[in-house]
Prior knowledge:
The complex is a heterodimer of chains A (175) and B (206).
Chain A: E1 2-14, E2 21-28, E3 33-37, E4 41-43, E5 46-47, E6 55-67, E7 75-83, E8 89-98, E9 104-115, H1 119-128, E10 151-166
Antiparallel strand pairs in A: 1-6, 1-10, 2-4, 2-7, 3-6, 7-8, 9-10
Chain B: E1 9-21, E2 29-35, E3 41-45, E4 49-50, E5 63-75, E6 83-91, E7 97-106, E8 112-123, H1 128-137, E9 159-175, E10 182-183
Antiparallel strand pairs in B: 1-5, 1-9, 2-4, 2-6, 3-5, 6-7, 8-9
Main location (chain A): cytoplasm
Subcellular location (chain A): Cytoplasm, Cytoskeleton, Cilium basal body
Pfam family, one (chain A): B9-C2
Amino acid sequence: MAELHIIGQIIGASGFPQSSLFCKWGVHTGGAWRLLSGLREGQTQVDFPQTGEMAHWSHPIDLHYTTKGLQGWPKLHIQVWHQDSFGRCELYGYGYCHIPSSPGHHRLQCATWRPLGSWQEQLAQMFVGGGPQLRSPDLIYSGADRYRLHTVAMGVVEVELGIILRHFDRYGIES
Amino acid sequence: MASSNPSVFLLMINGQIEGANFPEYDDLYCKYCFVYGHDWAPTSGLEEGISQITSKSRESHNLIWNFPLDLTFKSTNPFGWPQIVVSVYGPDTFGNDVVRGYGAIHIPFTPGKHTRTIPMFVPESTSRLQKFTSWLMGRRPEFTDPKVVAQGEGREVTRVRSQGFVTLQFNIVTKDMKKLGYDTSPGSSEATPVTGLSGMDQPYTL
Lengths: 175, 206
């Protein structure tokens, strides 16, 4: 069986309205993939940057997968949350990116979005915060039911990933 | 040395902790250590170190350590790839050593020269009472073991403040990774690199 190593970091995020941010992340794969070791999901620390507006998480990722097929190549999905000084959390963005399929070192920028409510909800959000969230988080990485959503652009999450492939060439896979 | 059927691969790290950029602090020193998985073992070199104290000069605001890293690891499995953990300390206004930042990064795995700048952060008190007592006593929250910054678990409870950067340089040499079947760079497989797999529509079973 072919093996895939994903080693890297979720570096941080920028371009969000406020910078006291944290991130929930997970890796989604198809059925042919099996996780041998490593954490498939997690949550970063909350960073309150002193210099600049970029929040830094330096959250390590180290995953070892084996696979019997190429379908369902791993995807990294993320949710960015804002935590205010009272400890209240508010959703700031959803996003996903494919794990690169070529070996080597990659720096990815994952653009994020958040659902936009009706104008009443937007008005309420301006004054009391909060806002609509997805009921089923699989919408982050699937395109099936997206057409019913109305979204707005949020910031960018930076991810640094190294990819090591093993025995893919044995099966004629050119990556 | 030349064995045709290797069972381990080697990772040689030559590099340096070049320096740091902390706009608010001066007279800093740093410590480093490595965090790695069960399959990994260091074969030569120093796994931990502590640098000199460096100050900003009048000309530049950079702190320079120029602190050497020379280390070799061996392993059978890339899982648990080594991470370097750097922590920076300096005196506060009363002369006590307090931590000014923790940071970590995976050692690059493609052979060659790499420069990495890593963000440095310190933990924050979670409650206002703790914040007040730490201000009163002049003691900042610290991690009892700096190695937690290289772990992905249990971070959701920590609140941090990032306040600087450390620049590291690495020269990486690997041995026998290709012989063990590991592809670490796009050019290393014989086939021409193809980006994206979207062209493969029908199921392709390995």
